[in-house]
Amino acid sequence: MTLLEAFINNFINEYQEPERKGVQHGDEIGIFSSRFKSLLFSLYGIPQKEIAKKVGISYSFFRRIKSEEDLDSHINEFSDIFIEDCLFLYTSTGSYYPRNYSDLPAISQETAFEINIEEAFLDSAKYCKVLKRKIANVLIEKVDNGIGVEATDKKELVKIVESLNRILKLLATWNEPEFNKQIFKVVSKKCNEQICKILKSDEITDSMRNHAIICSDFILKFSNIL
To answer: pTM value?
Structure first.
């Protein structure tokens, strides 16, 4: 199972369909299951007929849903939730945390389960453009703010390496040279700043030296996927 599939399945499983009973005619009653699934599966930039098939509805009904719902708004909302609650938790921890989206409880380590890095991003090339663009923008921001944090021990260094490798895996599989080049520009600049800072230091510790190696290695690996 991929990361986005796990996210969509968990969201659907947690979704409580609204009841018509007791709702006065003309009042809003929420989104019913088939519509909700259609909106979620629109996170994939796949043909509409394929989305309708995944949801289990006719293509004509899917087109009706699309015309009646604010699709762009929902895609933006679901993309933000996927990125913040799922994607970056995975790239930093290697685990997927199922969430109860009805009340968004605190994340618990006990609820986490592993998703194989080889499978996590198999479908990322099919992400819709909105989701890819948002991921690219947030990646740039997070790398710009986060890659400069120097690890102080071996355990921390391993975490940094694993996190960067998961990000690379995502970027290598989603086949978006334009976004990847934007991210690489920021990554290489930030990594080179760190390397120069470390090499100019009067006392270079093993941790600092390893951090410099990580930065240079990440630039090399990244350049290979462009």
So the answer is: 0.77
